[in-house]
């Protein structure tokens, strides 16, 4: 039996020779990756949810609400600058010592940073110190998130049984809508319960809850073993003659820089599109359309529910066709619904706004389900943690500033939604083109019998 098996439509689905699959281990790994990632994204998205409605008025001085919102969104983007830093560190050590240890560190770092945000003084009591401290903790959040996604994806996909890597990768991606639902529901509930007291201190409650949620995630991950692919790669390394190894990031730049660029483009909409549809859209509905924050928070919640349903289905379909096929199809849909989403928002109808978010977070997120599996198929195991983490988080650097860019475009164009809609459409097209190239690369690897476990890709001229 070859060490590389093909997915139904030609994608590379590595499975080492004579591996004895342990269903219980695979389920524990999947559960640990999903729950931990959900809790991490809860903390990360919570910052986005509260950027416009909390941080803008409480952490930035001045009398210009629009400027305060843009400043808050720029601070939101700081977390995305930090994500490649976290990806580099986590990827380096994750490719050297394993995925499990790094994932324990990332989840603890995220929980501590989020809890401390809930204890920060505001601009009124601390002046410029307040946004500076908020920026520092946001940077820590970004580093933690940068190391989390790649490791969690590998924990699930590398432990998955043959023929189910698309679905296992999709389940990890469900952590994103789960985190969205948690943050939106908890914030909406606190807003409803506290009323006018929300900005006076009740906003801290969702952040203080973080430490309890992270404790649950740590407990679950303590029961998860190292991944099968990493163990196989380590065994192959031990059996081979000793070689001096470069740092994973050096290997990526030296050997597969083109694949890194393709990976960045393929993942772009998963980050940038999401934060335009959530963080920016909260500000758009509240500040531009003049509607209560609960309208958009509830719509985001329903959109995230739709996202879970469509991503679950997309993961199943990915294993019957191929992950890259589903990603390409998903980005076609994302491009088609970019303008209708904003047209529906502009009706100011609660029902239509909910439909818009179901379209945006639900149907436009089909590609997000198997995109982690596609990135996994692009890179060999010895550099895989670093490569997929960098792909996602370098895309995240651009994505993190999309809300600020969209808000700036909104102001520059006099408040119309055409500018932000064009921006969303362009992001979708970039990811569509990149995913088509990724599919071609994966199918070529399969046709040539490239062994992603042993890393033969790195040795090809």
From TrEMBL:
Region (Disordered): 1-21
PANTHER family documented for this protein: SHIKIMATE TRANSPORTER
Keywords (A to Z) from UniProt: Cell membrane, Membrane, Transmembrane, Transmembrane helix, Transport
Membrane-spanning residues: 41-60, 66-90, 102-120, 126-146, 167-193, 205-222, 260-283, 295-314, 326-345, 351-375, 387-410, 422-442
Domain Major facilitator superfamily (MFS) profile: 29-446
Topology term for the membrane: Multi-pass membrane protein
Main location: membrane
Protein name per the record: MFS transporter
Location within or outside the cell: Cell membrane
InterPro entries noted in UniProt: MFS (IPR011701), MFS_dom (IPR020846), MFS_trans_sf (IPR036259)
Organism: Kocuria atrinae
SUPFAM superfamilies: MFS general substrate transporter (SSF103473)
């Amino acid at each position: 039996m070859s060490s590389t098996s093909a997915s139904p439509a030609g994608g590379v689905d590595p499975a080492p020779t004579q591996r004895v699959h342990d269903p219980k281990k695979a389920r524990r790994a999947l559960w640990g990756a999903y729950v931990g990632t959900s809790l991490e994204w809860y903390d990360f998205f919570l910052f986005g949810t509260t950027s416009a409605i909390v941080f803008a008025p409480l952490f930035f001085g001045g009398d210009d609400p629009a400027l305060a919102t843009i400043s808050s969104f720029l601070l939101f983007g700081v977390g995305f600058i930090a994500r490649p830093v976290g990806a580099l560190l986590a990827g380096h050590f994750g490719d050297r010592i394993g995925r499990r240890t790094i994932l324990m560190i990332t989840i603890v770092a995220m929980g501590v940073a989020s809890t401390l945000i809930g204890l920060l003084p505001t601009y009124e009591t601390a002046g410029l110190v307040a946004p500076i401290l908020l920026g520092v903790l946001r940077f820590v959040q970004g580093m933690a998130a940068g190391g989390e996604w790649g490791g969690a994806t590998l924990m699930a996909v590398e432990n998955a049984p043959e023929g189910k890597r698309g679905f296992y990768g999709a389940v990890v991606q469900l952590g994103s809508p789960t985190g969205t639902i948690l943050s939106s529901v908890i914030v909406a509930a606190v807003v409803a319960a506290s009323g006018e007291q929300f900005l006076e201190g009740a906003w801290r409650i969702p952040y203080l809850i973080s430490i309890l949620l992270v404790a649950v995630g740590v407990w679950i991950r303590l029961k998860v073993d190292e991944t099968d692919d990493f163990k196989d790669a380590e065994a192959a390394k031990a059996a081979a003659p000793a070689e001096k190894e470069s740092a994973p990031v050096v290997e990526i730049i030296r050997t597969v820089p083109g694949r890194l660029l393709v990976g960045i483009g393929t993942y772009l909409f998963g980050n940038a599109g999401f934060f335009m549809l959530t963080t920016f859209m909260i500000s758009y509905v509240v500040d531009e359309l003049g509607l209560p924050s609960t309208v958009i928070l509830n719509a985001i919640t329903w959109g995230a529910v739709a996202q879970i349903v469509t991503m679950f289905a997309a993961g199943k379909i990915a294993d019957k066709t191929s992950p890259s096929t589903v990603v390409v199809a998903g980005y076609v849909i994302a491009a088609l619904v970019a303008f209708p989403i904003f047209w529906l928002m502009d009706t100011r109808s609660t029902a239509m706004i909910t439909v818009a978010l179901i379209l945006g977070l639900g149907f436009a997120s089909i590609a997000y389900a198997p995109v982690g599996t596609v990135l996994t198929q692009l890179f060999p195991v010895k550099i895989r943690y670093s490569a997929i983490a960098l792909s996602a988080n370098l895309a995240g650097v651009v994505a993190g500033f999309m809300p600020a860019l969209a808000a700036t475009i909104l102001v520059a164009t006099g408040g119309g939604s055409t500018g932000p809609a064009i921006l969303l459409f362009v992001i979708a097209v970039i990811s569509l083109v990149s995913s088509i190239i990724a599919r071609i690369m994966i199918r070529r690897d399969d046709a040539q019998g490239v062994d992603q476990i042993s890393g033969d890709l790195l040795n090809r001229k």
